[in-house]
Design a protein that fits this description.
Elements: H1 6-17, H2 21-51, H3 53-81, H4 88-107, H5 109-138, H6 143-162, H7 171-234
Helix pairs in contact: 2-3, 2-7, 3-4, 3-5, 3-7, 4-5, 5-6
Length: 252
């Protein structure tokens, strides 16, 4: 009987080491499971933020301030590493602006929320006006949708602007919570879909491995049967002690 092939030895070593397709499939399934778990946490945070919009607004402002501080520190470290070049002072200025903005946002989150809400309202107004004018002037195939988007942006900007500064307590919190909610739903969809794909691929690989094992076993049995048949054909007949009789030996 022939010994195991090189490919078989490699597969056996990989399975013994825990690096086979089944182990890789389990690792991928676990990773996709963590993605789905993170998405669930984001969805819960988004729902809570939609309920408590004021808390979500202050939380988003504090996160924004800390991100500015961290970005300023990173920019300052890059500027120090690039000292002696032409971009040193530019890096220092950018780092100083980020650090100053981060300190202001953290110390005055409510005032920052009011300023950003005013900026968002102006963006909605200008975007809605440009979409309305552009759809009327161009008159493209998507004119109806462009008109609808422009009217919605204009109406949203006016609503936020007329209720300012009271709107700063909930506008940014609603946007932040909706972003968390949709990001969480996307991660949940990726995690569940990834686990299904990995399970399908693992099942296919297991089926192919079983079919190959059955084929190998059948080949070995058929080879053994053919060898036994050849041995039977090559075996000599039974030996006789008496010599063959001549034609005339039986006559008297």
């Amino acid at each position: 009987m022939n010994g195991p092939t090189a490919e078989g030895r490699k597969r056996g070593a990989a399975k013994r080491a825990g690096n086979g397709p089944a182990a890789e499939g389990r690792k991928l399934s676990r990773s996709f499971g963590w993605l789905a778990f993170l998405g669930t946490l984001l969805v819960i945070a988004g729902v809570v933020g939609l309920i408590y919009t004021g808390v979500a607004t202050l939380t988003s402002m504090l996160l924004f301030g800390w991100l500015l501080l961290i970005g300023g520190l990173v920019a300052l470290a890059h500027a120090i590493e690039s000292r002696g070049t032409n971009y040193f002072w530019l890096g220092v200025v950018v780092a100083a602006l980020n650090l100053a903005a981060g300190v202001v946002v953290i110390r005055h989150p409510e005032g920052t929320a009011e300023a950003l809400t005013m900026f968002a309202a102006l963006l909605f107004l200008t975007g809605g006006v440009f979409r309305l004018v552009g759809s009327v002037v161009v008159r493209g195939p998507q004119m109806g949708w462009t008109l609808l988007q422009g009217a919605f942006g204009l109406l949203l900007g006016l609503l936020v602007l007329f209720d300012w500064p009271h709107s700063s307590l909930y506008v940014l919190g609603v946007f932040f919570s909706l972003a968390l909610l949709f990001d969480g739903l996307g991660l949940i969809a990726i995690g569940i879909g990834g686990r299904r794909i990995v399970s399908m691929v693992s099942d296919r690989l297991d089926d192919r491995g079983g079919d190959r094992g059955g084929d190998r076993l059948g080949g070995r049995e058929s080879g053994r049967g053919a060898g036994r048949g050849a041995e039977r054909l090559d075996a000599p007949g039974p030996a006789t002690d008496s010599p063959p009789k001549a034609p005339g030996d039986g006559r008297k």
